[in-house]
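2024-03-11 09:14:02 DEBUG pipeline.ingest accepted 1 chain
2024-03-11 09:14:02 DEBUG pipeline.ingest length=451
2024-03-11 09:14:03 DEBUG pipeline.predict start
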Amino acid sequence: VYLGERECSIQRRNQKVIEEAPSPFLDAATRKAMGEQAVALGKAVGYFSAGTVEFIVDGNRNFYFLEMNTRLQVEHPVTELITGIDLVEEMIRVAAGEKLRFTQDEVKLNGWAIESRLYAEDPYRNFLPSIGRLTRYRPPVEGKRDDGTIVRNDTGVFEGGEISMYYDPMIAKLCTFAPGEGAPARLAAVEAMGRALDDFEVEGIGHNLPFLSAVMDQERFRSGALTTAYIAEEFPDGFAGVTPSDADARKLAAVAALINQSVQRRSTLISGSLANHQRPIGADWVVTLAGLTLPLHVREGADGTVVEFDDGTSLAVSSDWMPGHLHANFAVAGTSIGVKVSRSGTGWRLRWRGMDVIAHVRSPRVAALAKLMPVKLPPDTSKMLLCPMPGVVTSILVKEGDTVEAGQSLATVEAMKMENVLRAERKGTVKRVAATAGESLAVDELIMEFE
């Protein structure tokens, strides 16, 4: 029997990133023909177990055999979610000599399921591997939600565990399911995935959560226009995070204002102060984030805190966030959003839907003075070759005094089953080689300098 298809077009370096079932591209006739071909292949080679037959499909729904994997694949949970069949259990029963407990006519595809692969890869560094200790690992709560959607997380790591350079970078498979049929069910599953990603807390390593969140909000993905070139076409210059729209910037500004009010109130409750001398909390503030400056007025309303902007618009915001909480749900204009919150200097780092901003909430006077502060420039590393990821230097291909051309190979670094060749960005002369073959380097550690 066949159990429908899985759509695996969202790939990077031929490595699947997001999968779903069923495919938004296939129709019933193509699904049936493809399934029958897969069954015929299994019969022809005498294969009896769960297997995955991969096909490539063109724009006219013509499909071509690619390969067969005689095993379960990473993305098998989405098939389980839409069929209700435990594939691992059935594999074991077949291996024990039992017959299948269902026929092809009894296989029904219900709802829509999406899987996002959580990788220990830094999307801001061209998805290079990241290693380290999981100082915080808090997946979203699994199970059925009030709206009928389901969240499932398959993982093999734990908070306090270490992600090493010796194994595959995948650390979790986050799945969501929505009941129903067609485009509405798919969109509901996408929305559920977006919320689940917002609620997934991972600290200590670089990871692709913000990238996954960004994809979930892209109109092209939500419409189901998927190809294997999706990532290359949508992110031709790599991933640099999501720039907040004006509306999203105001939501995050309202969140920052509420956080500031909570911290300010707590600061006034210091014991031992003189009676009737409590420090008043101002109502006028200036929030700066993502290059925007947003003056606002904060007041308490019937629905909680109301943030009024200088153009007359306002947002009601409420939350049970308390100082020290690294994640909380904020109700902004009646919509609940899950935001990760942490201190960053004198500001607040807010992460939501692929956005990662530092929000400063200052009084108008302090904000005016802050504009006069010089911007600290980053150090000049243009004449250095730095290790882009934690890994082992497998070879140094040049020596001191060598003249190198643009694009010439300089060194190779191996990490997480991948060998990465580091090349010269421009013509130059090697001044000093700091690393040796076989040496383990941390991220941004010096490999060589140029004159």
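2024-03-11 09:14:41 DEBUG pipeline.report The longest strand covers residues 292-301.
2024-03-11 09:14:41 DEBUG pipeline.predict end
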